[in-house]
Amino acid sequence: MDRQSREAFEIKWLLEAIYACYGYDFRDYAGASLKRRILNRLEQSDCRHISDMVGKMLYDSDFFELFLQDMSITVTEMFRDPKVFLRLRERVIPRLKTYSRINVWHAGCATGEEVYSLAILLHEEGLLEKTRIYATDFNNHSLEIARKGIYSQELVKYQENYLLGGGKKALSEYYRHNYDAVIMKAFLRKRITFAYHNLTRDQVFAEMHLIMCRNVLIYFNQALQNKVLGLLINSLVHKGFLVLGDKETLEFTSITHQFDDFEPGAKIYRKTAALPKANQDEA
Ligand SMILES: C[S@@+](CC[C@H](N)C(=O)[O-])C[C@H]1O[C@@H](n2cnc3c(N)ncnc32)[C@H](O)[C@@H]1O
């Protein structure tokens, strides 16, 4: 067996052990970045081979927690990709205004900056009071930060993103200074429920009008992307909106025919009533 095949075998073994022991399924995460993270963890551990990490993983839950943090890339920011927020404001908000109640799901919300950005936008458009935002992630550490809504002073630098995203006031209207940090205002936090949810194994969130799942699918292989997209589509109402990250697409996925490319430049899709492909051929 050559080195590469041996490494592939060890990685498979490690992921099976994690799944069996902790229920976290990384078996369908995208290969290259998965391998990079495993090798990084190996380098920082006292193990010689990936296979040595299997036993350590099984008996040392702290070691697993470190691995979990490695696997959870939590990079995010306020009004990340401002054009997406601008398009949401201009094109999606007018449609959401027709509903008496609005449900939003942020799947893979990390530390919550994107969630507060949307809450601000909804507030400025007069919709926050009739909206419930569910924001989920499988990283409890990030969720804790998101729940508190306390960030470093660095947050002030996102004023420009906020304005490019169509912001109508000043970002500083939405937080107050708290020693050397800033804290998001309570009226925003009140409309958001942060909760643990693992996209690879947990259930749908029903009746969502808008789902933001940005910069999460890139970490999954095609099979897992299809599975998770199935979960997202089942969570959306008819004509509901799905927003993906800049480098993500519904093209070539199993559900592409069930969505309109509503705002191609901003990766905003809208669920249609289209039949599954096999039935379309018969219809
Ligand atoms: C790069 S962040 C994206 C944050 C935010 N959506 C944004 O675009 O700024 C990716 C997030 O996906 C989460 N994630 C990865 N796999 C997940 C899974 N199986 N279930 C739930 N969340 C997951 C990670 O913990 C991380 O917080």
TrEMBL record:
Domain spans labelled CheR-type methyltransferase: 1-272
GO molecular-function term, one example from the UniProt record: S-adenosylmethionine-dependent methyltransferase activity
Name of the featured protein: Protein-glutamate O-methyltransferase CheR
Species this chain originates from: Thalassomonas actiniarum
